């Protein structure tokens, strides 16, 4: 009987601990606005380009899903995404900081009442359509690539094509401490394709209408 009570007690403690850990940190967009100084220098400049591992535009993050932004920042912080500058920034952020910043950018530049069609704004060529079906892209990112099935997945319609291409290639990279991304699902998808095929996928998705944008921001307020 004592062993049973001990087991039940241990289970209860474990359950409470798990529930507490699983509880999401709620972000505050207004507070997040005061925490984005380190983001503005790249993501607040239209057309700004990074030079590593190759020249490409930094991603549009205004209008992105908050949960995805948190997920991405955590991936940089844990080293699951190897990019030195982003990891350096992410390591300085607490869970609350990430939640606040994500809340801010998820609403930044969003136009009230604006909606996107459920279908892509542009028809893919037969060749690209075959690549998208092979990769099963709509299964996670939505038929219009702007309404993912889970908010922890990114909106990708209208994202910079050169950034998408670099990101997709990163999932194919292994055992490189400087570049690469660890995600089993995306790695399995990306490794099916040649780099030229990934470029065509990125080019098409980047040409679509989406919620993502770069909103010009001043570094100092």
Distance between the termini: 65 Å
**Count of runs of 4 or more consecutive helical residues:** 11
Number of strands: 2
CATH superfamily: Cytochrome c-like domain
What is the CATH architecture descriptor? Answer: Orthogonal Bundle
CATH class (first level) name: Mainly Alpha
The strands making up the biggest β-sheet line up spatially as: 1-2
Quaternary state of this entry equals: single chain
Q: What sequence of helices (H) and strands (E) makes up the elements? A: HHHEEHHHHHHHH
Which of globular, elongated, flat, extended, rod-shaped describes the shape?
globular
**CATH fold-level topology:** Cytochrome Bc1 Complex, Chain D, domain 2
Structural category is: mainly alpha
Low-confidence stretches: 2-21
What topology does this entry show?
Layout: H1 2-22, H2 29-32, H3 37-43, E1 49-50, E2 56-57, H4 66-78, H5 84-90, H6 95-107, H7 126-135, H8 138-141, H9 161-170, H10 184-190, H11 195-206
Antiparallel strand pairs: 1-2
Helix pairs in contact: 4-5, 4-6, 9-11
Description:
There is one protein chain. With 221 residues, the chain is mainly alpha-helical. The chain has a single domain (27-206), classed as Cytochrome Bc1 Complex, Chain D, domain 2, CATH 1.10.760.10. It is 49% helix and 2% strand. The protein has a two-stranded antiparallel ribbon with strand order 1-2. Strand 1 and strand 2 (56-57) form a beta hairpin. The longest helix is centred in the N-terminal third of the chain and has 21 residues, at 2-22. The N and C termini lie far apart (65 Å).
